[in-house]
Amino acid sequence: MSPPPPPLGRSRKRAAYAFDAALDDAELAHARTALAQGRWTEVRALLAATGDDWDRRGHRFDVLAQEHTTTAWARDWRLAEPESTDAVVLLAYASVHLALRGKGRSENARDACREVAALLPADPTPWLALLTLERSLGREEDVVRLFDEVRHRHPEHHHAHHLMVARLAERRPAAGQDPLHEVYDFAAWAAEQAPADSPLAVLPVIAHAERYRVLATAGSEPANPAASEHWTGRRARQVMKAAFDWWLEWERDDHPRCRVDLNFLAHAKFCEGRAAESAALFHRIGRHATRAPWSYPDRDPYKAFTAARNAALGSA
Predict the structure, then answer these.
(1) What is residue 138's predicted lDDT score, i.e. its pLDDT?
(2) What are phi and psi of 310, to 5 degrees?
(3) Above 80 in pLDDT, residue 155?
(4) Is the peptide bond before 6 cis (omega within 30 degrees of 0)?
(5) How far is CA 228 from the centre of its chain?
(6) Which InterPro entries does the entry mention (predicted)?
(7) Percent of all residues in the chain with a pLDDT value above 70, rounded to a whole number
(8) d(CA 180, CA 130)
(9) How far is the C-alpha of 167 from the C-alpha of 164, rounded, in Å?
(10) 252 phi and psi, to 5 degrees?
């Protein structure tokens, strides 16, 4: 089915980069539309087919749970099939996003996630939902504990590592450009622990971007990342080169969140002034732009993405 036309007053050009959380997962986007129309059986089939591909399972639950109508339809699903653990996971994950939007109680979300985690002891997804909540609302010791729970069940969990990096980057904002900051150590350690073909190889670039967000928000770096020396120092160049070389050798187009890594890497290479390399990445991103890191520290992500893309492709 073709997507509906953009609303009046919204240009088709801008609609091409809708920052869709589903990224390039067409099956997920279709199931999400079906769920919004009350057809939860299509979501059931999608999640059953996902199996124990933990990164894909976490991605799909997270995207489905973000929709405002999910709670109501997931309740219908649970009433119709009370034995369905996927329905219970989706309800718990949806309660997390409700709490993050200020529409639900965080303690209720915590309780729901803990209950479903007990039902599915091998599944990292309920713990990922809790980590998503506590990354914004919880204490640091809770974030670390929940990350350990996810990693115990899936050591290379992509989304969990990104959440952990984002939280660690917020430590000691007054420390400024500290090359020994713990977020860099964590990212380097995680990349080294992962197999050679793991997309966690890009995690040091994620750490560099998240730390820039913190420093720019604190006012110690320019609000325009392309004007910041954060991206052109010796350490930054080494991190970016290593990640780009990994992408050239191992590009994981099959990973459900590969477009997240591509956006971070394109942003980093563009800010570094490497137009040709960023152009190659923009070609692979296609229309699957992500808000982060183009919004960092407080920018319009559409304007930032399209300006960088046009500049890179025009000079390549």
Answers:
(1) 96
(2) -65, -40
(3) yes
(4) no
(5) 24
(6) TPR-like_helical_dom_sf
(7) 94
(8) 29
(9) 5
(10) -100, 75
